Amino acid sequence: MSFPDAPSYGASSQSRATNNNKFPTEGPRVMQVRVDFTAAGQTAIIDLTIEQQQKQISQVQGLWINNTDGPDLLLVAEVTNQRINIAAGAQGYIQLLSQNPPRFSVTSSAIATVDFHFLNFPVIHAMTGASGGGGIQSIVAGTNITVDNTDPANPVVSASGGGGGGGGKVQYTSILKTSAGAQITDTDINGATFTPFILTTQAAVTLVPGSGINGNYLCLFQSYAAAGSTVSCDSGAYIIDQSGSAVGSISVPQFQIVQLMFQGDGAGNNSVQVIARY
């Protein structure tokens, strides 16, 4: 068997923008779409243009699907032509390369009713198989990660400090701080199931990293106060603005989203880094 010296390939004449890794101004939302496939090989068009125009969802960045009882599916994103095979018996999160307006085609291998949960926030592509086929076969420990494979079907993954991602939190947990002088503490950061998306109606907010912070923990902060919020640290920490300078406080206008990185060594040496503003 021989192979050509220079396999041919084709490339698009222009790049295409996608909605990936953007923080939705309306906060995390999910749009559920149920499709009834009445024949094998049938293709359905999912068009969320009207829902977007009605401001129900501003963009689509990911998908959750539970296909444990469903058929083989082929999902194709319009314009980007991203093609994803979703095996029968699979479930999990899918990272989508979608433009606006969000339109997709889905082809089913059999008669079925399937629920698609389109997400306006970014996710990490992670699919598992209900019976092991096509799912995760093994998990390999990386830096600051330990894996207990005593039960191979249900491995336990643990993360220590310094991982840079808050223990792998990739979605958002909304936390509303409404009390006067609302404080954002290490309890908020560590206790959140996913990356904290903290909303506040207060004009003055105090960041209290605390000794519980050990490593780097991402946090999204949004002000709903009429005149915005002044954000400062307690006496045991300081804020590093985007210029790299230590400052006493930052100003967050109403509805603006600020990406913050809580940093600590577990011994009370803490800081809060301003990563970006949206």
Topology (SSEs and partners):
Elements: E1 30-37, E2 43-47, H1 49-53, E3 62-67, E4 73-77, E5 83-86, E6 90-95, E7 103-108, E8 112-119, E9 126-129, E10 145-148, E11 156-159, E12 172-177, E13 183-185, H2 186-191, E14 195-200, E15 204-208, E16 214-223, E17 229-233, E18 239-240, E19 246-247, E20 249-252, E21 257-265, E22 270-277
Parallel strand pairs: 12-14, 13-15, 14-16, 15-17, 18-22
Antiparallel strand pairs: 1-8, 2-7, 3-6, 3-8, 4-5, 4-7, 6-9, 10-11, 16-21, 17-20, 18-19, 21-22
Describe this entry's structure for a reader:
Mean pLDDT is 80; it is low at 131-135 and 161-169. The termini are far apart. Helices cover 4% and strands 43% of the residues. It is mainly beta. It has 2 domains: 30-129, Jelly Rolls (Sandwich), CATH 2.60.120; 172-277, Jelly Rolls, CATH 2.60.120. A 7-stranded mixed sheet has the order 12-14-16-21-22-18-19. A 5-stranded antiparallel sheet has the order 1-8-3-6-9, with no helix packed on it. The chain is globular and about 65 Å long. It is built from 2 helices and 22 strands. It has helices at residues 49-53, 186-191, and strands at residues 30-37, 43-47, 62-67, 73-77, 83-86, 90-95, 103-108, 112-119, 126-129, 145-148, 156-159, 172-177, 183-185, 195-200, 204-208, 214-223, 229-233, 239-240, 246-247, 249-252, 257-265, 270-277.
